[in-house]
Specification:
By secondary structure, this protein is mainly β. The protein has 5 helices and 43 strands.
């Protein structure tokens, strides 16, 4: 809740004025708005007074002031001086952005100064940060053209691109061999830096984007004194193939806020093939594939994008896959997730265009939970789940037309032996020879059956018996040589068909005629006789 206590402050000021006591500091408190946080402390949210020099309160209405909210004095270019009390531990985004401050002194009680906190302070010339401050956020003091005096403590663990476009960086005398240091912190490097560069011994941290776009830089040798690498510290250093982390490095991320994690130090290093770590480093280790892990968090931090392997099996015990961990790993086609995995960042696989298989051996419910913990859903994952990559299958049992076969192989992602069935095959054809028909016995046409199951595929048709044949009339069958029985003799009538006549009207039979002509005459006579008989009967009626 926001609190304003102007009425009460006026009454107190009046009482103190009558008592002859100074009232300026108490009156100033009435111009501050604040918010009471869950822990019972106050956070400054705004200032509505007209003072140009402020002494920020450590206590408001009994609440200890511990933080300054984002854009607290944003754009208040009339504010030229601010004293920050030792009760403050956090300065929010853009809190003093665009103010008229000329000097800034940060007490050691402040642990985090986040992005743009003092950016665009056109008259700022000096910054003194005391021992105890641990984090400087993105562009915290950027675009302050007159800022030339900067004092940083050794307590800083994380430093971002905090001093871009300042008077300090514009002064060529502050650069050493194309590299800019502020005390024990490596802040920036010119893009023309090439070959191999050895970081100075005593360097505490390398700022975010420090070596960004140094495309000709082939090697960076980190000093043992380095404890942190800012996000994108080597971004687009596309000639660097290997990185070695010394024993004291405890962070390869830049933490913009306590709950906001940015990209790791090796983001966008397209040619990075391998990361190695000092075996005495208590915070990180790299496996035999050059993949970087956080020991305490049991998280996968970086898979080198130019690693030549097509597949990778994340080891059992890994709990998390961090932001951009596999970013732009173009050679990668398959991954194996352990059951221990609890979440992976939504952007963990950005640019992995060729990943098509993920081996995951949990249930559908476990997979759904893993996606939910990662802020994703089933529709966000377009790759195939639980499909192994087996480059070569070995036939163990050949398939038949009755039973499926089986073949085995080893998944090149997870290393486990896999088996799969081989579909049944078409029948094995076998010709069944036919049998020719004979004169007296029928035959069979050729057919086809399956040699395995015996199924008749083409049935044999019967060929009728051929019967005997004697074309030459020798009394023997021309095919099989069997003697043929002579044909039965017809009864001898003593005449031929031509010398006999039978009338179709009266059935009169005349035989033993000498010639066919005589039979023909008989036929004419019978015809005439029968017609005359018919006519007589007709007229008699």
């Amino acid at each position: 809740m926001k609190k304003t206590r102007k009425t009460l402050a006026v009454l107190l000021a009046a009482i103190l004025l009558l008592a002859g006591l100074p009232v300026s500091s108490l009156a100033a408190q009435s111009d501050y708005n604040y918010y009471v946080k869950e822990d019972g402390t106050a956070e400054l949210t705004g200032y509505s007074g007209s003072e140009t020099e402020l002494v920020l309160p450590a206590v408001l209405d009994g609440y200890t002031v511990t933080s300054i909210q984002y854009e607290f004095l944003f754009g208040c270019d009339n504010i030229v001086k601010v004293e920050i009390p030792d009760s403050i531990t956090y300065i929010g985004y853009g809190a003093f952005n665009g103010t008229g401050l000329t000097t800034v002194e940060i007490p050691g009680s402040v642990k985090s100064i986040v992005g743009d906190a003092f950016a665009y302070c056109q008259d700022l010339t000096s910054v003194i940060i005391h021992e105890g401050v641990e984090m400087l956020g993105w562009a915290a003091f950027s675009n302050c053209p007159k800022l030339e005096t900067i004092a940083l403590p050794d307590s800083i663990l994380y430093i971002s691109d905090s001093f871009a476009n300042t008077g300090y960086g514009s002064n060529p005398d502050n650069w050493e061999n194309d590299v800019l240091y502020i005390g024990s912190y490596l802040i920036d490097a010119k893009e023309t830096l090439s070959g191999s560069y050895r970081v100075k011994e005593g360097t505490k941290a390398i700022a975010s984007q420090a070596f960004a776009n140094c495309t000709q830089l082939q090697e960076v040798i980190l000093a043992d004194s380095v404890v942190s690498l800012g996000g994108g510290a080597f971004s687009y250093c596309n000639s660097i193939k290997n990185i070695y982390l010394p024993r004291n490095v405890c962070s390869v991320y830049y933490l913009e806020d306590l709950d906001w994690t940015h990209a790791h130090a090796f983001a966008n290093m397209e040619q990075l093939e391998y990361i190695s770590v000092d075996p005495n480093n208590p915070y990180f280790y790299a496996d035999e594939n050059g993949v970087l892990y956080n020991k305490a968090e049991k998280s996968l931090i970086v898979y080198p994008p130019a690693n030549q392997a097509k597949t990778y099996r994340i080891p059992d015990g890994t709990l998390k896959i961090n932001e951009y961990a596999f970013s732009n790993s173009k050679n990668l086609e398959g991954l194996a997730f352990p059951l221990s995995l609890q979440m992976f960042a939504p952007n963990a696989f950005s640019g992995c265009d060729n990943v098509s298989h993920i081996c995951y051996f949990g249930s559908d419910e476990q997979w759904a939970t893993l996606l939910a913990n990662s802020g994703l859903n089933i529709d966000d994952i377009l790759i195939t789940i639980n499909e192994h990559m087996v480059p070569e299958w070995k036939l163990e049992t050949a398939p038949t037309c009755i039973e499926e076969g089986m073949e085995t192989g080893v998944c090149e992602i997870c290393g486990l032996e896999q088996s799969r069935s081989v579909p049944t095959v078409y029948h094995t054809l076998e010709l069944v020879h036919g049998q020719s028909a004979t004169c007296t016995a029928p035959g069979l046409e050729a057919g086809v059956i399956c040699a395995v199951c015996g199924e008749i595929l083409i049935a044999q048709e019967t060929i009728p018996a051929l019967g005997h044949m004697d074309e030459n009339g020798d009394g023997f069958c021309d095919r099989d040589g069997v003697a043929l029985e002579p044909p039965e003799e017809e009864e001898d009538t003593g005449h031929t068909p031509w010398d006999e006549f039978r009338c179709s009207f009266c059935d009169t039979f005349e035989a033993n005629q000498d010639t066919p002509f005589i039979g023909y005459i008989y036929e004419i006579i019978h015809f005439i006789v029968h017609r005359l008989q018919y006519a007589t009967q007709l007229f008699s009626i």
